[in-house]
Amino acid sequence: MGSINPQSRTRGGANIVGGGVGEGPGPDIMAAATLDGNKVMSSDGEHVGKISDIMLDVRNGRVAYAVLSEGGFLGMGSNLHAIPWSALTLDTDQKCFVVDIAAQRLKDDPGFDKDHWPTMADVKWGMSMHSYYNREPYWSATQDVVESDPTFRSSEH
Fold first, then answer.
1. Which end of the chain is more exposed for a tag (fewer CB within 10 A), N or C?
2. 3: exposed, middle or buried (C-beta count within 10 Å: 0-12, 13-18, 19+)?
3. d(Cα 9, Cα 62) in Å, to the nearest integer?
């Protein structure tokens, strides 16, 4: 497994390690559907589940979080976890994601079930989820970058 980049704790996106490049345009730009079903390994090397969904912040054009499906059979009875995108590293050699958290800590996260999805629009929930994974919320982690980039600033003519 590649090592986790400590700078990813403050960036808004997922880190990428490895030299493996699959078919298509990856690994920097990829269709979200190609990442669904990818296995997820914990920082201590345990297979903890698979990516079931990648949730988009539609208004702001960013990845809000990934959904990890843990356990269950054919999606039935599985526990779901919202994981900040910045807490994941795509390992292109191993063709998996590594979540920057130990397996037991992930298992201790109560998660949610398919009938009771959290609301990312609830800032308190979003901040709590990011804090659990020791990450700055994506909306504040990238704010300085966006505000300092003249291509993102609106014209005041």
1. C
2. exposed
3. 16
CA gap 52, 72 in Å, rounded: 12
Range of the domain at 77: 6-148
Structure confidence by residue, pLDDT tens digits, 103-120: 999 989 888 888 888 876
**Burial bucket for residue 130 (CB in 10 Å: 0-12, 13-18, 19+):** buried
In the chain the beta strands, taken as DSSP E runs, fall at: 15-17, 39-42, 47-57, 62-70, 79-83, 88-91, 96-99
Q: How far apart are CA 65 and CA 59, in angstroms?
A: 14
For 116-138, the pLDDT digits (tens) are 888 767 888 888 888 899 888 88
CA 35, distance to chain mean position in Å, is 11
